[in-house]
Every structure is written in C-alpha cells, then in structure tokens.
Design a protein that fits this description.
mainly beta; 2 domains; 6-stranded mixed β-sheet; 1 helix; 18 strands; about 40% strand; globular
C-alpha cells in the first residue's frame, strides 16, 4: 500500500485531550487503512455503489497527558479519498502532508501549524481557519476555487498559482501580504478585520469582484 497522507501532532493535557477522529469521504468501492501509533489500525471501506463518508476514531494513550502522535493513511488506490474533515479539535495538529492523493477535492483542517499540498494538485475547496503557520503556500493548488482561512496567523498567503479562485474568506486574518493571480475574478470576498493588509491590496481585491455579485463583498 502507498502512503497518501501523514498528520503529526500531540494531545493536550485535559480530560478530552486523548480523543480524535477524521471524517473521510471515500470513492465507491475503495478502502484505506488509517494507522496511529499504538492505536489499532482502522480500515475504512466505501459502499460498492456510491461514495461514502467514513470516520476513523482515535483514543490516544496516557489520558490527560501531552503525547505526540502520527496518523498515517494508506491505500492501494491513490484515488480513494475525495474529501477530508478533521475532528482532531482536542489535540494540537502540527502538520498535514498530502503525499499522493490526486483525487482529494475538498479539505477542512483547522488550527494547523503546517500544510503541504504537494500530493493533491486537484484540490478545489480548502477551509483552514485559525492556521498557525507564518506562511501559507498554496502554489501547488492550480484548481483551487474556494479558500476560507479565518483568523489565520500567516503573514503571507500565496495564491498566485490559483487563477480560478472565486470565493475568498480571510476574515480576521493577520496577513500583510496576499499574492494572487492577475486573472482572478472573485464572486465572493470577505476581508473584514484584516487590519494588516495594505489598503491598496484591499482596493485591488474589491475591484476584482464580479459586478453582479457585489452584494457578496465584505471588506470593512
């Protein structure tokens, strides 16, 4: 089996800090194996005739203690995963690395320190609210159409290789530099409370919102 995704992190020191889960939408007929340290391997299998949401649950060792963990997802088919949503809220996620998952179209992962999208070039939707890293590099995502990164801490967000972005929600972001493609034409824009973003960048973004969707502009 080939490794598709690696997630590293650590539990937190309180009563719920040893629990976590991942929700994964699987392509019909496919299966993946989810490994997490001393936890028992979890095999997720989609229904044979339709794409299926599955959940891998984890109960980390040393209840109430800070313990590092590594979650690895394997499959014999790189096209097995369509969407992924993290339910690791009661832990601290250090990094998410997509190694080889070209079928991944949508991902929701909050409070992450590092994201590597090298192995998912067809990702279209990304929700990474509360991103903790200093730089959010999205240059590996040429097909991205929607980005939500509310209250992110990245000083720079690079969308320069994603000309098809239509929806951009960066409410409360601390960024001071936003790199976007000159051909971008937004249908929805929210840059509310982006106090560090230069005024000329805000003006340029507002100008590139499609006129008949001006009601979706939130830029104060």
């Amino acid at each position: 089996m080939d490794k598709l995704i690696t997630i590293t992190g650590k539990t937190i020191e309180w009563m719920e800090g040893n629990h976590g889960a991942l929700d994964i939408k699987m392509r019909r007929g496919c299966s993946v194996t989810v490994r997490c340290g001393k936890c028992r391997d979890v095999v997720l299998t989609a229904q044979p005739d339709y794409d299926t949401w599955c959940r891998a649950e984890f109960c980390f060792s040393k209840f109430g203690a800070v313990v590092p963990y590594i979650i690895e997802i394997y499959s014999e088919d790189a096209s097995s995963i369509l969407e992924m949503v993290d339910v690791l809220w009661d832990t601290t996620v250090e990094s998410v690395i997509i190694h080889d998952c070209p079928s991944l179209m949508s991902m929701k992962f909050h409070n992450v320190n590092s994201l590597d999208f090298t192995g998912c070039p067809n990702l279209e939707y990304l929700d990474c609210d509360y991103y903790k890293g200093a730089f959010l590099d999205l240059t590996a995502l040429p097909h991205l159409t929607s980005l939500q990164c509310r209250s992110g801490e990245a000083a720079t967000i690079d969308l320069s290789k994603s000309p098809g972005v239509l929806s951009l929600d960066l409410c409360g972001s601390k960024m001071n530099a936003l790199k976007v493609c000159n051909q971008i034409s937004l249908q929805r824009l929210c840059i509310q409370s982006c106090d560090n973003l230069k005024s000329r960048t805000k003006a340029w973004l507002e100008k590139n919102v499609i006129d008949n969707n001006a009601s979706d502009l939130i830029a104060y």
